[in-house]
Specification:
5 helices, alpha/beta, 6 strands, Rossmann fold, six-stranded mixed beta sheet
Length: about 180
């Protein structure tokens, strides 16, 4: 059975990006995937210290936080989903911190389907371009076989729950549902 790991990077409980991630999860489960969701707001991984302790300790970070417990889940997942609010036309700091913390094992994440769910108060789809570009940079580092397989843009959603009334709500479900088990 294919495994999907959803990383919700919003610091806000009940955020629009997390709401859309839940829709994606429902669709993926209906398609027959095993789905796990991680809420970074509950765990707050620390910044990478660039000390490279991890490189000489089998990928374990000296920081005792979620990254040590999630490492193998990231490596084992067939599908990775990042859900993020868009801040100043880029991914959230939480998402960037999470990506940076994969330094010791990112090459083991290769050959994955990666999906992006991004929400923005700005109604223009171009508001999400920087977020897509940043994630594509990470995917390029993963190497051959890793690809950005889909993007859901929830634009024009500012208040918590606004995404329920956007086209992105159904799109997130459909994208999850479209993954082959």
């Amino acid at each position: 059975m294919k495994k999907a790991l959803i990383i919700c990077t919003s610091p806000r409980s009940g955020s629009n990006s997390t709401l859309l991630a839940s829709q994606f999860a429902a669709g993926a489960e209906d398609a027959g995937l095993s789905v796990e969701t991680v809420l970074l707001a509950d765990s707050e991984p620390g910044f990478c210290q660039a000390c490279y302790y991890c490189l000489s300790h089998s990928g374990q970070c000296f920081q005792q936080d979620i990254m040590n417990s999630i490492r193998e889940k990231l490596v084992e997942a067939d599908v990775l989903v990042f859900a993020t609010p868009v801040y100043f036309y880029g991914m959230s700091g939480q998402m960037k911190t999470f990506i940076d913390r994969t330094i010791a094992f990112y090459k083991r994440i290769a050959a994955r389907e990666v999906y992006l769910i991004a929400t923005s108060g700005d109604p223009r789809s171009s508001a999400v371009d920087g977020t897509i570009k940043g994630l594509q940079g990470f995917i390029e580092c993963l190497g051959d076989g890793a690809k950005l397989a889909g993007v859901v843009l929830g634009t024009g959603v500012s208040e918590a729950g606004d995404a329920r009334h956007s086209a992105a709500y159904d799109e997130a479900y459909q994208m999850g549902r479209s993954i082959q088990p």
